[in-house]
Amino acid sequence: MTTHALTQKLFAISDLIRLPKQYGTLLLLCPTLWSLFIATEGRPSLKLLGIFILGTFLMRSAGCAINDIADRNFDRFVERTKARPLASGRLTLKEAIVTFLALSFLAFILVLFLNPLTIILSVIGISLASIYPFIKRVSHLPQVFLGIAFGWGAIMAGSAVNNAIEATAILIFTANIFWSTAYDTIYALMDKEDDIKIGVKATAILLGKHVYTALYLLYAGVIMTLALAGWVAKMGNVYFAILLLSGILFEYMVFILKYSPTRETAFRIFLVNAGVGLFILAGIFADYAV
What we know:
Elements: H1 3-16, H2 23-39, H3 46-70, H4 85-88, H5 93-111, H6 116-135, H7 142-162, H8 167-189, H9 192-198, H10 203-207, H11 211-232, H12 237-259, H13 263-289
Helix pairs in contact: 2-3, 2-7, 2-8, 2-13, 3-5, 3-6, 6-7, 7-8, 8-11, 8-13, 11-12, 12-13
């Protein structure tokens, strides 16, 4: 392979794992760090931080690879995805599979530095990430399954600290199901017309004209469940104030989308979710700091 050809392959792999677009990593990382910071009372070790941040990056990258492998025969018919490496032929199926396996293996190596319970949980996490892309073939609720896959890091972070699956981690995991379902439904609105044509299922299609009501309720579910997690963990006033502000932001985002239902608006609001997730993390940190 010539230097030019190798460079083109590396660029294609970069596109496959969405290397220039790390908002997905932030969305996956937020519930993990919420759980980690609460489990350690705001003082996670550098070891745990490093393992979970790097592990999240690797698993999100692997998830993007398996998603494109699953969608390779659909992406070419969707305006937003037709230039993806597999859909456009810049990568072969074998190359994408090798990339997925390599990233998953590296992520698993990281987990080996944690306790046995977390290692077992990581196998479930990898399985969830591998299954998710195929759910949209059989169910209108792939966004709910994404919430399960994306929230699993919260369970693992709690177990890495406490060597047990505790109530707070379960509640954060549940809150993430509401959250991921909400923001991924917004993301799916961008592809709604194309998805209907090619037969891909999504909550954005299932909910129809009730999608905005559902989004209001889902975001309310995020805040109420995180508030319950905070109550169980004996969090202070700073945490609950940040949750209140976050809830207002979430509901206002849905209001904007309802009255400006464009592809551009949906994408901007989807991105803002990562910022709100970090805002909640900052609230957890600040609550323990004061």
